[in-house]
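User: Thanks for the earlier help. One more: DUF4202 family protein. Can you show the sequence and predicted structure together?

Assistant: Of course, both are below.
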Amino acid sequence: MDELDCIKKKIEKIIEKSPIPEDPIHSKNTLKWVLKLKPDADDALQIAALGHDIERAISERKVKRQDYKEYDEFKEAHALNSAKILLEIMKECKASKVLMDEVFSLVAHHEKGGSEKAEILKNADTISFFDVNLPFYYLRNSVEETKRRFLWGYKKLPKELQRIVAELDYNNRKLAALVKKWIK
């Protein structure tokens, strides 16, 4: 097994055990969106897409929202924690230093973007949140909290990608109506 297969298998094995039921779907869906936004995405960007939220799947290492005053601080800590976990996995799989450095940087910046590739990851992750996670989030949280999280993510996207979110179809009629209302 080569280093890339090793990394991908370890990521998948960890995320499959996540207590958050949509995490395995979101991981693969983020990769799908990365490839839609950048069909020639390199190995680093693809690995980062699969593992960007890995820390959520490890209860004893998960960053907790209540430990942070600001939501953005929490998301930054979450991103850094996932990057550190992926670095450990890549070391176990004997990945090159170049690959480890790039994946670490991409995942550490997946909430805010910055570089061209980090922007692609941020946008793919955000679209995937709306595509996969939002219906689950809505079921677990209040309408007000769902609205806050929706708007936080929606505002991160460029206008042309906001249109993708506006066209997503939700099976939950109440959620679909709320999304239409929030977008206006």
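User: Great, one quick takeaway?

Assistant: The mean pLDDT is 95.
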